[in-house]
Amino acid sequence: MADGIIVVGAGQAGLQIVDSLRLGGYEGELSLVGDEQDLPYQRPPLSKQFLNEGMAEQRLLFRPADYYEKQNIEILTGSKVTELDLTTRTIKMGEETRTYSKLALATGASVRKLPIPGADLPGVYYLRSLDDA
Q: Which 3 state secondary structure label does DSSP give 122?
């Protein structure tokens, strides 16, 4: 990709950016980069319907896999951005370097651990991703 848009962060915000670009008429190259192996999915149901009620993993997805193909959105799951160079407009993911014309960072948040005694005891878990669930 030489002149496309790269969105780093394959959560709800990243998905909204690529969706909005396509709905707004952007027809150029478009990539969504995420460090998780999964397609963009809803996080709130992880601790509710998914764990407690056995919700199917497919129902967590914001869009089915074929949606991205139909919209010509390249999905780069399991890709961690290790370098960003604003001068050369490149990102590096492992050994691969990509050039972009525009870049959006939608990397989300990290889990906040309880700052209280006992937060590190066995049986205390932090739920942030599908892998955690």
A: coil
Cα dihedral 8, 14, 19, 24 sign? negative
Q: Is residue 37 within 8 Å of 77, Cβ to Cβ?
A: yes
- Please, is 129 exposed, middle or buried when counting C-beta atoms within 10 Å of its C-beta (0-12, 13-18, 19+)? middle
Overall pTM > 0.70: yes
Over residues 43-89, the pLDDT tens digits come to 765 667 665 556 666 667 779 999 999 999 999 999 999 999 999 99
- Please give the structure tokens belonging to residue 77: 């799951």
In the three-class reduction of DSSP (H, G, I as helix; E, B as strand; rest coil), residue 57 is classed as: helix
Backbone φ, ψ for residue 53 (5° rounding)? -115, 0
* Contact predicate 15/30, CB 8 Å: no
Joined together, the tokens standing for residue 129 give 């991703």
Burial class (CB in 10 A: 0-12, 13-18, 19+), 9: buried
